[in-house]
């Protein structure tokens, strides 16, 4: 190996080799010959980070000079996925790094496998935040993503006898080369204590006398824009004990107590709550929420704004986007800072605050609308509770002025709920405070206005808007599906990665047999790649000649994995009952990926059932291998990147009116899978764009769901009247999938029959019909391929770049500053 010249820049192979070896020797402290793969990975990551760092520093300086309006994206979750390839791609270093490592005798693929993805989110909400920071950087929008650096991210899922067992995700244990701490920029965050009033030159003011505090230490992640030299910041906060806190106790001579205090403080950023859609109202969770938003607001005011900034003009410099209700405690926090610390009059502070926040709602499920008990909130944040009461009093006064003493309306709109216990309704607080409130798909935004927040829509109609979610084409096409990306570039030229509407150009190619053949080869290659990943990772076998039918997303009753299970059992039942022979069945491999919240018993039972059905179906000789059920554990971004490009069929089968948007649905369509889906969330928009001929629609519409619910949903009617359904459910009930034990899955069946809010049985027959249409369509491979290409061509709308542009136009008004 030749020694690189001293001055070779990092963007040359020689320069990269030199920096890599230097990092290996002096940062990691090993020689190349003695280094482990992890050492090499860390040195590689460090080299990429060095390259980005120079641009990051430049950008910091430039943004500082410009003093443009910034977006502060506040999100309790960022489901980032692996960083190495994304950063190499953005910085155009992939080939250089590959060659440089080859010169050192290292295969970059081996190092890729060393990276543990930062799983700092549960599912779609956290992944959306990760797509958005990518698009913000790529579009050159001044912005900072703020969140929490959980020491343990989403649990690692394993299966023992088909049942989920959670393992801690110690993602930091082998080093975290992508972030750097800035202890000198720490913020002190207070909790507890009491409030008091005092006389300030004749004016009575309130102040908070906190009981305890912790230090929030920022860890910066560099977020490179794609090929634009831009590097934005994702700032995640870690909790550590404050020195003062320690000292006081140390001085009292209680060493053990001081250590306990340290642990207590650090608990705040210890672990991500693994609940998706059903918050548990735990005190530590409220601590996390306040911890990160207070640190973020403090950071922006103290460190990003110039020292002499007049906060009256704050709305010209920042918009805080609230990603769901998790950061909503930021609203009373900004009020507290303005009124108690910066001496603003209440009304002036409120006028500022109302322009500085916007709120994204992510749900339609009532149980997902976060509330905090007044008791708990008052104990942890007494001053904030007072502020919330005052905001509510003023707001309800305005409602009275407009609507008179309509007590029912007042009660319904109050930020304070009374039943079953006194609580703060965080979604209402966000709606009252936010300049804008958006849903995440057209249907969802409409349902927010019509139902969830109807009274508020009547009161502030101008606040409500929609921004349909999107996904980043850098990660979900370029990185996840490089052969498709090449094919697209070959057809359309470069540029589509940052202008996804250009995919429209593929429409013409859908009619070209040669292009279709190339596309089919890409899909086949992705299936082989997935087969090899699943073989290596889990010892699973994927056959080349099967349709890949994929349902990957969090396990939740509303997403209706059970409907998928009933379809599989129906197919199997046809064979074992002699109604069909295996030869009649289209060969299909069903792939599931799904984590269940550890406390969500029904979701865990469903996981158990899926594995149990797989165990039987996969091993029954009558099936002749024509049906396969695979459930690789631990679905995460890394697995998504392998599974989605290989899929033929995308399962998006939630009950209409329950899925806010979905983003998995977009990833599949953009990778040329056809969707079988309900008219729910963004499925509606996907279907409108790709056309009914290229989408398998089934199930009740949202108004039909409402009508059936109002009339009285009787699942047993569906069970009694549908022979296939009855037979499939009876097969499960017989113990066929539980070694003859009839009790194991009984709770699932009785739930479906007597207590199912998500109406699985009502949509069963329509779903089975849709699957028959899928089989028929799949039989004509060439026509299927054409539809797949049209799905890609018509889904450019679902780029998260478009979402961000919509946020800029409709909510933020923060032009790019490239
Ligand atoms: C995209 C994504 C999700 C969201 O999927 P939905 O089908 O929209 O629920 C969840 N988890 C991971 C790992 C993802 O990449």
Automatic annotation (TrEMBL):
The keyword Cytoplasm does not apply. It catalyses: [(1->4)-alpha-D-glucosyl](n) + phosphate = [(1->4)-alpha-D-glucosyl](n-1) + alpha-D-glucose 1-phosphate. GO terms for molecular function: 1,4-alpha-oligoglucan phosphorylase activity. Its EC number is 2.4.1.1. It is an enzyme of class 2 (transferase). It comes from the Bacteria. Its cofactor is pyridoxal 5'-phosphate. Keywords: Carbohydrate metabolism, Glycosyltransferase, Pyridoxal phosphate, Transferase. Allosteric enzyme that catalyzes the rate-limiting step in glycogen catabolism, the phosphorolytic cleavage of glycogen to produce glucose-1-phosphate, and plays a central role in maintaining cellular and organismal glucose homeostasis. Phosphorylase is an important allosteric enzyme in carbohydrate metabolism. Enzymes from different sources differ in their regulatory mechanisms and in their natural substrates. However, all known phosphorylases share catalytic and structural properties. Belongs to the glycogen phosphorylase family. This is Alpha-1,4 glucan phosphorylase. The lineage of its organism: Bacteria, Bacillati, Actinomycetota, Actinomycetes, Micrococcales.
């Amino acid at each position: 190996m030749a020694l690189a010249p001293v001055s070779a820049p990092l963007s040359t192979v020689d320069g990269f080799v030199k920096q890599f070896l230097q990092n290996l020797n002096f940062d990691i402290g090993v020689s190349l010959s003695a280094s482990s793969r992890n050492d090499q990975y860390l040195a590689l990551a460090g080299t990429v980070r060095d390259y980005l760092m120079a641009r990051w520093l430049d950008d910091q300086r430039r943004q500082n000079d410009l003093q443009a309006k910034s977006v502060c994206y506040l999100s309790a979750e960022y489901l980032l996925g692996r960083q190495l390839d994304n950063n190499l791609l953005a910085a155009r270093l992939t080939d250089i790094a590959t060659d440089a490592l080859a010169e050192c005798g290292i295969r970059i693929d081996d190092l890729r496998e060393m990276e543990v993805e930062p799983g700092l989110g549960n599912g779609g909400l956290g992944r959306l935040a990760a797509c958005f920071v990518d698009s913000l950087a790529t579009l050159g929008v001044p912005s900072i993503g703020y969140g929490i650096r959980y020491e343990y991210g989403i649990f690692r899922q394993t299966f023992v006898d088909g049942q989920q067992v959670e393992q801690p995700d110690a993602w930091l244990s082998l080093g975290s080369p992508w972030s750097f701490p800035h202890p000198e920029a720490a913020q002190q965050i207070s909790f507890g204590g009491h409030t008091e009033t005092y006389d300030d030159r004749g004016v009575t003011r309130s102040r908070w006398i906190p009981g305890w505090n912790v230090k929030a230490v920022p860890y910066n992640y560099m977020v490179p824009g794609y090929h634009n030299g831009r590097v934005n910041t994702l700032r995640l906060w870690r909790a550590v004990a404050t020195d003062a806190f320690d000292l006081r106790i140390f001085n009292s001579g209680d060493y053990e107590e001081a250590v306990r205090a340290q642990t207590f403080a650090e608990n705040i950023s210890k672990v991500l709550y693994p609940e998706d859609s059903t918050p548990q109202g735990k005190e530590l969770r409220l601590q996390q929420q306040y911890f990160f938003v207070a640190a973020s607001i403090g950071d922006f005011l103290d460190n990003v704004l110039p020292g002499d900034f007049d906060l009256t003009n704050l709305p010209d410099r920042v918009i805080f986007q609230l990603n769901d209700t998790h950061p909503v405690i930021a609203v009373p926090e900004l009020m507290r800072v303005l009124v108690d610390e910066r001496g603003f009059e209440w009304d002036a502070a409120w006028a500022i605050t109302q322009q500085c926040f916007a709120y994204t709602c992510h749900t339609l499920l009532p149980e997902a609308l976060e509330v905090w008990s007044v008791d708990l909130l008052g104990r942890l944040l007494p001053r904030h509770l007072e502020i919330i009461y005052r905001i509510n009093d003023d707001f309800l006064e305005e409602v009275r002025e407009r609507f008179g003493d309509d007590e029912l309306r007042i009660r319904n709109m109050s930020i304070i709920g009374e039943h079953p216990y006194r609580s703060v309704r965080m979604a209402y607080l966000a709606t009252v405070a936010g300049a804008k409130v958006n849903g995440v798909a057209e249907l969802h935004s409409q349902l927010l206005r019509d139902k969830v927040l109807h009274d508020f829509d009547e009161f502030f109609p101008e606040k409500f808007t929609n921004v349909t979610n999107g996904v980043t084409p850098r990660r979900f096409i370029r990185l996840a599906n490089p052969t498709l990306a090449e094919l697209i570039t070959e057809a359309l030229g470069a540029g589509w990665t940052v202008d996804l509407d250009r995919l429209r150009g593929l429409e013409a190619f859908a009619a070209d047999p040669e292009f279709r053949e190339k596309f089919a080869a890409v899909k086949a290659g992705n299936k082989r790649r997935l087969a090899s990943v699943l073989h290596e990772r889990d010892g699973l076998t994927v056959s080349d000649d099967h349709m890949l039918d994929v349902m990957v997303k969090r396990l939740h009753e509303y997403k209706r994995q059970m409907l998928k299970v009933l379809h599989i059992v129906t197919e199997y039942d046809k064979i074992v009952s002699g109604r069909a022979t295996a030869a009649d069945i289209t060969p299909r491999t069903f792939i599931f990926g799904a984590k269940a919240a550890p406390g969500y018993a029904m979701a865990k039972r469903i996981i158990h059932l899926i594995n149990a059905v797989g165990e039987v179906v996969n091993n029954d000789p009558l099936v002749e291998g024509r049906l396969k059920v695979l459930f690789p554990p631990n679905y995460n971004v890394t697995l998504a990147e392998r599974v989605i490009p290989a899929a033929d069929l995308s399962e998006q089968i939630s009950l209409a009116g329950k899925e806010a948007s979905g983003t998995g649905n977009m990833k599949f369509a953009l990778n040329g899978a056809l969707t079988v889906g309900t008219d729910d969330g963004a499925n509606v928009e996907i279907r409108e764009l790709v056309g009914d001929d290229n989408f398998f629609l089934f199930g009740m519409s949202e108004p039909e769901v409402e009508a059936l619910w109002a009339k009285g949903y009787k699942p047993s009617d569906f069970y009694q009247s549908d022979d296939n359904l009855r037979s499939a459910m009876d097969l499960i009930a017989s113990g066929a999938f539980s070694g003859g034990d009839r009790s194991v899955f009984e709770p699932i069946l009785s739930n479906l029959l007597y207590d199912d809010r998500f109406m699985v049985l009502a949509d069963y027959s329509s779903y089975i019909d849709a699957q028959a249409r899928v089989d028929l369509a799949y039989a004509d491979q060439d026509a299927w391929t054409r539809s797949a290409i049209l799905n890609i061509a018509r889904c450019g709308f679902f780029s998260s770049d478009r979402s961000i542009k919509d946020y800029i136009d409709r909510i933020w008004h923060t032009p790019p500053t490239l």
